[in-house]
Amino acid sequence: MAAERGRFDRGRGEQARERRREQIRERREQARTQAREHGLAAEAAERSGERASKPSGTGSSALTRPRVRLDLPRAPRRSLLPEYDPEAFGRLSERVARFLGTGRFIVWMTLVIILWVLWNVFAPDDLRFDKYPFIFLTLMLSLQASYAAPLILLAQNRQDDRDRVTHEQDRKQNERSIADTEYLTREIAALRMGLGEVATRDWIRSEFQDLIKEMDERRLFPAERDEGDR
Fold first, then answer.
1. Quick one: 155 exposed, middle or buried, by C-beta within 10 A (0-12, 13-18, 19+)?
2. Alpha-carbon distance 210 to 132, whole Å?
3. What's phi and psi for 6, nearest 5 deg?
4. Biggest alpha carbon–alpha carbon distance for the chain
5. What pTM did the predictor assign?
6. What's the rounded Cα separation, in Å, for the pair 181 and 191?
7. Which positions ≥6 away from 221 have C-beta within 8 Å?
8. pLDDT tens-digit map of 5-23
9. Model confidence over 143-190: pLDDT tens digits?
10. Domain limits of the chain?
11. CB 3.0 to 4.6 Å from 93: which of 21, 60, 151, 190, for a disulfide?
């Protein structure tokens, strides 16, 4: 009996192993078929895009746009303009505008102009690089003004943006403060209405004083009280 049971258990184990192997094979086949279907779908999409990109045989001049694949990143566009960091450029403009609005800049510019004029007036002719009427100095001052104006405007725009954000935050904070104040006002009013019917210390003291006076009067004039009661 034990030998038969062992053979039976071995047979069941072999059958279970065969089933597992079959399941693994089926899963592999399903994965392969899915991969083939995915590859065929991708090829069909590419072919349809190529067909759409080609001009039609009817002779029309308009070209249809190719289908854009969403599973691929967009290629970067080439631009002829130089690329720069707007944030870094904005910080630089603020520094320049902050320096142009100081007395140090006015003093240095005044000294440079005075030295420029004195050198080109009293220096030897061979060493003068900008003779009267100082055209090169006028050109330099014009360039300085033409570059300073946009930098100052850019700095002002950045400051306006910061002020707008600050004002928006202040407005929201004021709205929250007003809402909190109204809530506290309603709560205080409700408490005052609730305490209006509660006996206060002064009222209880006045009631006790009236009772004491009445008891004193009864002690002083007990006969009159009794006759009055009769």
1. buried
2. 109
3. -65, -40
4. 140
5. 0.43
6. 15
7. none
8. 555 556 666 777 788 788 8
9. 988 888 888 888 888 888 889 999 999 999 999 999 999 999 999 888
10. 86-195
11. 151
